[in-house]
Recover the amino acids of this structure.
């Protein structure tokens, strides 16, 4: 019983640390929309689409995590597909730099 509790605590701690690193990475990026990017004369660095079979937030989390590795300052996320009946959630992210 004690081993199960220890294992559960370890898994919970690891997942919280992972979530914290994603939040820290997201804090270095600023979320903007397309018109703001145009007004600020930002350069598009990259664009990528992410798919999740669970929910829309998970797809966006994966997208922001990827964006944090792209050496960019800003990002925009767009919902491409939301289909709960087919368990498909797709988002597209665009990352920008000065």
């Amino acid at each position: 019983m004690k081993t199960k509790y220890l294992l559960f605590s370890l898994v919970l701690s690891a997942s919280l640390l992972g979530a914290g690193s994603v939040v820290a990475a997201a804090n270095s990026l600023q979320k903007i929309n397309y018109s703001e990017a145009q007004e600020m004369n930002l350069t598009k660095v990259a664009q990528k689409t992410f798919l999740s079979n669970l929910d829309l937030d998970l797809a966006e989390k994966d997208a922001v995590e990827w964006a944090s590795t792209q050496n960019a300052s800003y990002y925009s996320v767009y919902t491409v597909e939301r289909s709960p009946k087919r368990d498909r959630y797709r988002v597209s992210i665009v990352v920008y730099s000065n």
